[in-house]
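Researcher: Quick test of sequence recovery. Tokens follow.
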């Protein structure tokens, strides 16, 4: 047996069915009213509605084409809870990653702040050595 969450996601995988659900958020409608904007038969829309009905997303009182189709919004709570759980977990991972990156950035800033070359008025030994070599070479060539 397929669990309801899988049925909900499978039913919503089709763009026509998602559109039908979106249209039903405005209120109940008959199969004929739902089929009107599509270039498919009423029977094709009825098949889409059957999939939505099996997933528990819509209901009809008697199953006929004239009976109104009703959106069962509480079924979305199941999918929303599932998505929310994984959204929270992903958000926590991103927060931990942000903390690690911030700590790495702080370490790099502290390291640079303590380097003698980054302090005004402090002589950089490598620059001084290069200057001394250049001066000696100039004297030798002169």
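Model:
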């Amino acid at each position: 047996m397929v669990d309801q969450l899988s049925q909900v996601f499978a039913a919503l995988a089709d763009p026509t069915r998602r559109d039908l659900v979106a249209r039903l958020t405005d209120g109940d409608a008959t199969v004929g009213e739902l089929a009107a904007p599509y270039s498919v038969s009423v029977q094709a829309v009825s098949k889409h509605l059957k999939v939505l009905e099996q997933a528990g997303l819509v209901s009809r009182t008697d199953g006929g084409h004239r009976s109104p189709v009703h959106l069962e919004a509480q079924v979305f709570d199941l999918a929303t809870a599932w998505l929310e759980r994984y959204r929270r977990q992903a958000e926590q991972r991103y927060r931990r990653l942000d903390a690690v990156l911030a700590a790495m950035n702080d370490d790099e800033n502290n390291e640079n702040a303590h380097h003698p070359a980054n302090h005004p008025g402090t002589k950089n030994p490598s620059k001084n050595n290069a200057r001394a070599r250049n001066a000696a070479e100039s004297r030798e060539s002169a």
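The chain has two domains: 4-73, 91-141.
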